[in-house]
Amino acid sequence: MLTIDEFRRTFTEDSPPVTTPVLAALWWAGRGDWDRAHRGVQDIESVEAAWVHAHLHRQEGDLDNARYWYQRADRAMSEDSLDAEWRQIAAALLAQEAEQGR
């Protein structure tokens, strides 16, 4: 399983080192490509995609839209820093990917 720090070190690569589209979208967000990250999750119907989608709209400053997506993710809007929330999402999705890879 990739650690968050290992995951972040791959930001210099041309493509994400992960298999799930939701985690790939989070990777693009971490690299600062909001549009690509948003395109990666906007049509996926899962709580994980909704969580990433919520984070992206929070990052954008569109808090009403973020609240909608947090609700879809069955989560309260984060009050943590954007970086702390990104790390929380990354940890959860990396663990999930590792579990599915077993």
Structural summary, described in words:
By secondary structure, the protein is an all-alpha fold. It contains 6 helices and no strands. It has helices at 4-9, 21-30, 34-41, 47-60, 63-72, 82-100. Helix 3 (34-41) packs antiparallel against helix 4. The protein is globular.
Radius of gyration: 13 Å
Q: Which series of helices and strands comes N to C?
A: HHHHHH
Please count the beta strands (DSSP E, at least 2 residues each): 0
Helix content: 55-70%
User: Number of helical segments?
Assistant: 6
Structural class: mainly alpha
- Which sheet architecture does the biggest sheet show? none
Shape: globular
- The total number of structural domains is 1
Uncertain segments: none
Strand content: under 5%
Oligomer: single chain
Give the end-to-end Cα distance, rounded to a whole number of Å: 10 Å
What is the residue-mean pLDDT, rounded to a whole number?
A: 93
Q: What is shown here, in short?
A:
This protein has one domain (22-100). It has six helices and no strands.
What is this structure's SSE topology?
Layout: H1 4-9, H2 21-30, H3 34-41, H4 47-60, H5 63-72, H6 82-100
Helix pairs in contact: 2-3, 2-4, 2-6, 3-4, 4-5, 4-6
Q: Which structural traits does this protein have?
A:
single chain; 102 residues; mainly alpha; 6 helices; globular
